[in-house]
Amino acid sequence: MDTFFELIGKGFIIVAIVFAFAIVFAFPVMWLWNWLMPPIFGLPGIGFLQALGLMVLSGLLIRSGSK
């Protein structure tokens, strides 16, 4: 039973680390987009979840062609 709770605890730690990395990397993407894209290209600003999605999409596109 102790190993079950250890696995649950490790799972929560992993989820917390992934969430922390998402915040650390998505906010700069959002700030840079909102700072550069609307004045240069007239594009609308984006929110946090859109920046996170943009990061995931660009990661998938870049990693798919690297092999």
Explain what this protein looks like in three dimensions:
- The longest helix is centred in the first third of the chain and has 40 residues.
- Helix 1 crosses helix 2.
- The mean pLDDT is 89.
- The relative contact order is 0.10.
- The chain has one domain.
- It contains two helices and no strands.
- It is elongated.
- With 67 residues, the protein is mostly helical.
Describe the structure using short key phrases.
67 residues; mainly alpha; 85% helix
Major sheet size, sense and barrel closure: none
Low-confidence stretches: none
Structural class: mainly alpha
- Give the N-to-C terminal Cα separation: 42 Å
What is the tally of helical segments?
Answer: 2
Task: Name the shape in a single word.
Answer: elongated
Please give the oligomerization state of what you see.
single chain
C-alpha Rg (nearest Å): 17 Å
Q: Indicate the percent of residues in helices.
A: over 70%
Mean pLDDT: 89
Kindly give the count of domains. Answer: 1
Strand content: under 5%
Give the total of beta strands: 0
Order of helices and strands: HH
Give the structure's gist in a few sentences.
By secondary structure, the chain is an all-alpha fold. It is built from two helices and no strands. Helix 1 crosses helix 2.
Layout of SSEs?
Elements: H1 2-41, H2 48-64
